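A brief tutorial aside. Many learners find it easier to grasp structure tokens once they have seen a single protein encoded end to end. The record that follows does exactly this for Homoserine O-acetyltransferase. Read the sequence first, then the structure, and try to relate runs of similar tokens to stretches of the chain.
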Amino acid sequence: MSVGPTAGETPPAAGGWREGDPNGRRQWFRGELPGLPVRIAYETWGALDPQRSNAVLVLHALTGDSHVVGEAGPGHPTPGWWDGLIGPGRPVDTRRWFVVAPNVLGGCQGTTGPWAAAPDGRPWGARFPRVSVRDQVAAEALLADALGIDAWAAVLGGSMGGMRALEWAVSLPDRVKSLLVLAAPAASTAEHIALASAQLHAIRLDPVRGMGVARRIAHLSYRSAPELEARFGRDRQADGRFAVESYLDHHADKLVRRFDPESYAVLTEAMNGHDVGAGRGGVRAALGRVTARSVVAGIDSDRLYPLAQQAEIAEGLGVDLRVVSSPFGHDGFLIEVEQVGALVAELLAGDPGGDPGSGAAGLQGSRRA
């Protein structure tokens, strides 16, 4: 039985990439936001064309990283989180597209975050400045500038990555030609913030053990009630514990071995602050700034970010809401690769650089007239 740390046990040290660890496939960019020097770890696949017009930005969720595709190995504790979506002959075909995936600002897989050295030489830790989704996009824009990418052919993101994808299209509309927002809201709600608050309190009481508790809380919102009932019901293990408890322990234990609790807190607070309409006249007015060809999709069993929240974005963008059918709740955006891949392929087929016959007319998720 795999369980998380219990009373009397020594919990594992906080995880994440650290200086001296293998780089793996990471590349590095250094820049500066106001008052904050930043280093961004990122990975790429494919080749940038001479016009620099075929670049696709892929944005990860809360505990993801730049390793979208590939095996686990030195420098990469887990395999690619969207394997099956990117590569030769796949929906994002790397024979045609140049794919860029950065680790988010505040993360713990190579990009500047609480684990990194502050100007005084000590790790930032809890002193790391509060960052917003808009700050994270600003850091990614610096990376795009360094790569010579004036506009992305597409920006793709799910969950927290979907928040950043939407923010890209709202704040920098001229730099986003097409957009996929998947299983994400236009603004975090009171319920989202309340759920996150319990996780943040656990981490502040005991960072490593608390992150295990936070993961247990979060994971319940990532899966659906019918799936948990079908998989576990009231089954017990030989020691008398409920099987679903062991399942949550397993996911908590995995996370504390690969992720940094301070990063978890920083990113959770950034998600709590997400609101594309703040300072822009509200959500509807902000969405009116988007010029990208857009697909907005949600998961029919998602109880973290229900379909009504994607419907708000779709309506504001003047597109049809696309629905991914899945028993897996919010995690369906990672699991249902075939359905998500079909949406991505459809979006990219409508790119101006694509086949002349494909066009936007066949894209049901494109902006309605």
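Self-check: Residues 190-205 form the longest helix (16 residues). If you spotted this yourself, you are ready for the next section.
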